[in-house]
């Protein structure tokens, strides 16, 4: 229930944004056929879009105000969206979001960052039906679908009269923002890049980047390959410089990660590199187990 203040005015109620008292619960009933959505938001997450995709498709149109160009919109969500990202639906959601933007959205950009968000949902006649204001965003956390900042203050209207001032404020804000069609086109391009097909090599390269980008310190040969082992008087002398670099890198990764794959092309000396790695560990009195793969013709004869 809305509360009545000392002088009789009605106040918007506070949302806890947890349980059944969430932003999504406050706006979802009003995302209906023919209604209009007016929002100013600091973020635009594909996973929040996915949770409301059915309702957003029913709207007649929407006005969307976002931070200035170059701001991080959080399209791929935050840490709480890891499970959603693992479903590998971001590319599909990006395509659906592009269609929604093209069909039903007028987009404008603010001159700077947006400190808080607002939802204003109007009926077909343009009159406000539901409004939400405060620490909200179009993200799973902002909608209350994932745990967010409990210190955020969020208010929601319960009557059209309560939402009228916020509705008027949004109209004033909207008219102050520049009309620039390139803003929507730029966002659509960003989403289309997310939806584009990615080849296996790029996926593999990105995996390696994320696994090892924080391990970028230069390899120190003396620190990794101890001279006292006597390794430099063995097969090490027969290695070219690039092969020694491979051995140093392999020994470093074995020490730090417990495993390594030498994936050089044919003819670059992987066997000699492996022998040097084996010899190094033998000189340290480590136990070494060699599991060679037999050629297919030998396996057929077994």
Gist of the model:
By secondary structure, this protein is of the alpha+beta class.
Question: Can you put this structure into words, describing what you see?
Answer:
With about 300 residues, the protein is an alpha+beta fold. Helices cover about 40% and strands about 15% of the residues. The chain contains eleven helices and nine strands. A seven-stranded mixed beta sheet has the order 3-9-8-7-4-5-6. Strands 1-2 form a two-stranded antiparallel ribbon. Helix 4 runs antiparallel to helix 6. The longest helix has 17 residues, at about 160-175. It starts with a strand and ends with a helix.
Helix tally? Answer: 11
| Average pLDDT | 86
CATH class of the largest domain: Alpha Beta
Number of domains: 2
Q: Which parts are unreliable, with pLDDT below 50 for 5 consecutive residues or more?
A: 1-9
Task: Identify the CATH homologous superfamily of the largest domain.
Answer: Endonuclease Chain A
Count of β-strands: 9
**In one word, what is the shape?**
elongated
Strand order of the largest sheet: 3-9-8-7-4-5-6
Helix content: 40-55%
> Strand share of the residues?
5-15%
CATH structural fold name of the largest domain: Endonuclease, Chain A
Radius of gyration: 29 Å
CATH architecture of the largest domain: 2-Layer Sandwich
Structure classification: alpha+beta
Query: Termini distance?
Result: 81 Å
Largest sheet data = 7 strands, mixed
Order of helices and strands: EEEHEHEHHEEEEHHHHHHH
List keywords for this structure.
single chain, 302 residues, alpha+beta, Endonuclease, Chain A, 2 domains, seven-stranded mixed β-sheet, two-stranded antiparallel sheet
